[in-house]
Amino acid sequence: MANIKSAKKRVLVAQRNTERNVAFKTSIKTAIKKVLACAQSEDKSQLDELLSKVYQLCDKAAGKGILHKNTAARKKSRLTKAVNKLTK
With contact defined as beta carbons under 8 Å apart, do 42 and 87 qualify? Predict the structure, then answer.
């Protein structure tokens, strides 16, 4: 542990931000799983809604620096390919 007061604060801030980022990434993974489950059930309107939600979460994470922009694009692309494959 650091001895300087500002360093101690930075450790606490980094820990708080890490927890927030992990929670956000987990929500993205959960949303992706819901989309894949919905794609198998073939409910088109709900599928579009859930897919839009995943896109929104990925874009927001990339904007906040939680995910790299290419990582967000890759997740969206792979999800779209998987959904198209399951719905055919």
Answer: yes
| Residue-range definition of the domain harbouring residue 80 | 5-87
Q: Scanning the structure block, which residue is given the tokens 């859930």?
A: 50
Which pTM value belongs to this model?
A: 0.87
Question: DSSP readout, the chain?
Answer: --SSHHHHHHHHHHHHHHHHHHHHHHHHHHHHHHHHHHHHHT-HHHHHHHHHHHHHHHHHHHHHTSS-HHHHHHHHHHHHHHHHHHH-
- The Cα–Cα gap between 52 and 4 comes to 46
37-82 pLDDT, tens digit each:
999 987 888 999 999 999 999 999 999 999 999 999 999 999 999 9
CATH number at residue 48: 1.20.58.110
